[in-house]
């Protein structure tokens, strides 16, 4: 309001008052055209406004605004005004991009609805009263919106919770599968066409080599060629076989394998039709052909990523070994 007074002090004062009134009118008009609900945030379960936003609405600097509040601090208990933690402040800034929040050394203060109502008693100008009325109306509109859309918000919250649960279960499955595969870069599924015997043999050997503790093969037609693939395992890896009673696996074949590669646990049963390779009791591959015939006809190798199915299969195989 730097008006040069050259007539009289009285005239100068009148001009300054007129200019102040115009500024107040401009400020109130600007507030009337602003959607104040966008300045209301939910923190600690309460609707609040940040001190710098309030200061801007009242047309003063944030420092001046907070000094006025501190001079009347008894009017602002904790449920009227509280300071954000650094974590709350960082989270709020990540959600809202605003230039007026930069350069602060400490997290800001926020004011609840009661605190905003108290501001009109501390900042007693006509402009402050008009601003406070506008802000209180915004709080009312916010409550009305939440009340009118409570059912919708509850559904959204329920959906977000369901999505979070699904994401967690999916992450757990991926962690189990990919954590096991690790750096091996083994495919989760692969089709081999008729004649691709060498490629099929190479993948099966890679799967066998990937085991760190145990291998379990369910294959009704195990023979010496199957044992040749299993012999590629790491030293110390335990091997179990589930095969048909009629499988061409002789006692001498088993004895030769065990003499070089360790014990071989075998269960003969007709309970299974398909082939499965279980690695370290974590990863289970469904194999469309017997290992000894891999590549003679088109078949697929698929990693089962359903944990419930994997655990069910392991349970049934374990029972067979217990009952033998």
Q: Taking strands numbered 1, 2, ... along the chain, how are they ordered across the largest sheet?
A: 5-11-10-9-6-7-8
Helix content: 40-55%
Mean pLDDT comes to 78
Number of strands: 11
Number of helices: 11
Identify the overall geometry.
Answer: rod-shaped
> What's the structural domain tally?
2
Strand content: 15-25%
Quaternary structure of the protein: single chain
Largest sheet: 7 strands, mixed
Low-confidence runs: 1-33
Structural class: alpha+beta
Secondary-structure element series: HEEHHEHEHHHEHEHEHEEEEH
Round the Cα radius of gyration to an integer and report it: 37 Å
Distance between the termini: 99 Å
Overall description:
- The structure is a single chain.
- This protein has helices at 9-32, 51-58, 62-70, 86-95, 113-122, 126-148, 150-181, 197-210, 224-230, 251-261, 307-323, and strands spanning 41-43, 46-50, 81-83, 109-112, 189-192, 214-218, 238-243, 264-268, 275-279, 283-287, 299-304.
- The protein has 324 residues and is an alpha+beta fold.
- The strands form 2 sheets. The protein has a 7-stranded mixed sheet with strand order 5-11-10-9-6-7-8, sandwiched between helices. Strands 1-2-4-3 form a 4-stranded antiparallel sheet.
- Strand 6, helix 9 (224-230) and strand 7 form a beta-alpha-beta unit.
- The longest helix has 32 residues, at 150-181.
- The model is unreliable at 1-33 (pLDDT under 50).
């Amino acid at each position: 309001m730097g008006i040069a007074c050259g007539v009289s002090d009285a005239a100068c004062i009148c001009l300054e008052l007129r200019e102040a009134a115009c500024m107040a009118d401009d400020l109130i008009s600007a507030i009337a055209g602003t959607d104040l609900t966008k300045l209301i945030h939910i923190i600690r379960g309460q609707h609040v406004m940040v001190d710098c936003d309030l200061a801007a609405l009242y047309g003063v600097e944030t420092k001046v605004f907070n000094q006025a509040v501190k001079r009347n601090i008894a009017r602002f208990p904790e449920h009227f005004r509280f300071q954000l933690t650094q974590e709350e402040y960082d989270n709020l800034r990540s959600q809202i991009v605003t230039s007026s929040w930069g350069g602060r050394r400490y997290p800001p203060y926020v004011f609840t609805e009661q605190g905003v109502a108290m501001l009109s008693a501390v900042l007693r100008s006509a402009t402050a009263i008009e601003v406070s009325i506008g802000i209180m109306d915004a709080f009312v509109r916010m409550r009305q919106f939440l009340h009118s859309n409570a059912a919708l918000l509850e559904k959204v919250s329920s959906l977000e919770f369901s999505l979070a649960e699904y994401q967690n279960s999916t992450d757990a499955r991926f962690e189990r599968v990919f954590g096991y595969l690790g750096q091996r870069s083994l495919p989760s599924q692969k089709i081999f066409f008729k004649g691709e015997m060498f490629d099929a043999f190479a993948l099966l050997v890679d799967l066998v080599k990937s085991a760190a503790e145990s291998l379990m093969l369910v294959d009704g037609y195990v023979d010496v060629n199957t044992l040749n693939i299993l012999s590629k395992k790491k030293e110390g890896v335990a091997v179990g076989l589930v095969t048909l009673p009629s499988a061409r696996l002789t006692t001498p074949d088993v004895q030769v394998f065990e003499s070089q590669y360790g014990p071989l646990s075998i269960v003969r049963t007709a309970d299974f039709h398909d082939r499965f390779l279980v690695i370290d009791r974590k990863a289970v591959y469904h194999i469309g052909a017997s290992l000894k015939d891999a590549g003679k006809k088109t078949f697929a190798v698929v990693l089962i990523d359903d944990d419930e199915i994997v655990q069910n299969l392991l349970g049934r195989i374990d029972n067979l070994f217990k009952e033998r």
